[in-house]
Amino acid sequence: MSLKQKQEKQQEQQLSLCQRMALFQASSSVRQTNSKGSGACKRKKGGAETSTSISPSLHVETEIKDYKACSSSTLSDAHLNETHISTSCLPSSDTCHSQELISFLLPSYCDSLFCSLRSLKEEGLLLDCSLQLLGDSHKAHQLVLAAVSQRAEEWLCSRNMEVNLYNVGGSGCHITYAGLKAVLNFAYYGEVNMTYTEARDLEEILMACRCLGVDRLAEVCKAEAPSTGRAEREQSLRVIRTLWERRVGCDVIMEVESGERFPAHRIILAAGGDYFRALFCSGLRESKEEVVCLRGIASWVLESLLEFMYSGQLNLGWQNIWDLTEASLQFQLQGAHTLCSEFLHDHMNDASCLDTLFLAETYGLERLGRAAEEYTLAHFQQISERENFKDLTCTLLARLLEKDELRVDSEVVVFRALMSWVEEDKAHKLANLPGLLQRVRFPLMSPPELEEVEGCRLLRRNAEGREALQIVRKLLEGNQRTIGCKPRTPNQVLVLVGGDSVNDNFERREPNRSLWFAQRFLRGEGLIRTIEWEPLVQLPEPPRLRHCVCVLNNVLYILGGRKYYGKLDILKSVVRFSPAQFKWECLPDMASARDYFAAVCWRGKVFVLGGNQDDTNYLDSVEYYTPEDNTWRLAHPLDTPICGHAAAILDGEIFISGGCDSHLRCLPSLWHYDPVYGCSNRAPMASGAGRAGHVMLAVGNQLVVAGGLQPLQVGFGDQLQCEAYDVLQNCWMPLPSLPRPHLSPAATCLDGMLYILGGSSFDSGYDTPWVYRYDPRDKFWDKLGTLPRPYADLAACMLQLPINHRG
Question: What SS3 state is found at 236?
Fold first, then answer.
């Protein structure tokens, strides 16, 4: 497809119905190589080709006789081969699609068609039959009436457009107004919309059925169980299709540029789609012509669409789907388009997704476009190796590269795909390279991958790659403080950090230095679930528990906590781990040692809030770390010293919930915190008198609180109830309770679901080894398996790991 044709398609979306129709008819065909211009077609006569002008005065009956001589009634390979299909909507030549055509039926089509027929009748459009009864004229569509009436079919064959119903059917037949109304209602609705309050009403209907030959209505009236309107409408559509196949009552010839002609009924075309409704009902020249020439459409495509309009059924396969989809859109056949879109959606694969995405972009098909984009992002690594990947526009490629959802084994795959795309047409694409390179997340690459980028000839030899090379060299030198990026969400793994557990001899509790990641989640027989854990790396000394973790630009920050169980063991040290470089870095200490505190990443900074300082004094201080200058600073303090609280970011704002104050009171409070102005109160939590040792995370557009303990009349107890906070409504809503206690657990969020891991039970004193996941769509806690061992006072996060460290 040329650039001009693409622009015309995009402009076409902005035009009115009539303008689009005029544009489509005026545009030259890019599909048929034998196109010969407006108003002419090629026909063979006596073995020689002659150019025949289309005369509007030519009678339809004569054209129908010639129909079999100049058109094919089957979908053949010849029909497919006569059409040149735009490469913008075709899979590449190496596509291994099945060539089998499958029949698809749109169940709602019949109802939709008859709804349109009733609308045309109510608006007085295309009414071609006048029924005279007792001085009154009753207008109808003769084809619709013929679908239920044998007498009306005779009128259709003889083209008797005006009928006097007096003595129709012979002597003794007297049609009344009530009887005629019932017949017309049955023809358009498939129902008998009358209440028989008297036997006379039923007799009048049966008399009308006998006079007009409406046997089906008579059977419905006599049946004990009433027939459904849908079944009768479907039967009427089958009759209409039979009449069309016999060429009975066809009042228009649809002609394609190759000269093939297809008789049809105006009323079915107008009811089938908005394009033909405008063509035949808006006073355009074609509304009065007996032969209408359609440009830019192959004969087999028109034949398939006509088959659909008379049946609601399409035969679809990879050899015809692109042409039928475009034609259904151009002719505004919503039902046919629905079947085509469902086919593309349900049969999407690596070969078709980019073409589907381009088609959806061209015609503004949001649902299909989202599905194609999601598929492309999920299978980017395989798709980027295909030849048609190089045909992507710069705008579309940039949009894909900047998505967090893009799935690849390593970010270097994204870089290689981009280089391949540019190399295909350097003369035109090289100018776009700087902007596209900004969407490659170089900090996610390992040193060997960065060295590959640094050695890329295309970057080294062209000015467009200099900025990217500077970033790569800084990363290789270990300077990451001013270079940040978000991880690709689908490539992240669940990581456990530190915590403590009972030792192997069950003698005492011991803090640990282990980092584990979930290699995969496995489902066994029945309800059995397991998690395959793999060791990732060891924390630098000392071990940590009751600490916090934050992830900023896919770099893991591990803050505070304690190394053992004495009051002097509380830490103020901070370390940082880079998965891409796979190395640790010690950062400046916080101003205060703290455990049982909260931490969040906000606007490129790491915040720590409150906590326990020495098992006697709690903190109200807030500090934040700025990676750019490697410095800690103080922010506005909290309203009161607390520990055991939770904090989360929602819509770019910091929220703090619960915790214990210095009097060991468990708080139900929720604060909105601003580093400049401090705390402001929001609606307190509703479950229990307070909560501490819990987790809080943003899930969707809500804050979800789970786990911890609550105050009782005497002492404390496990809190299993969960709740969610709605920021706009400033209220809490109950959620399903946790299946097991989780005091001081770890928690993290991925793909809109909350993971809660480990912790302990206040009531029993035992550690909780389980991992649960909450999906807000299902409103259900799903048990995924166990931890590597029962850890408490641990932390968790999501990290993107290099492929060589994922096992």
Answer: helix
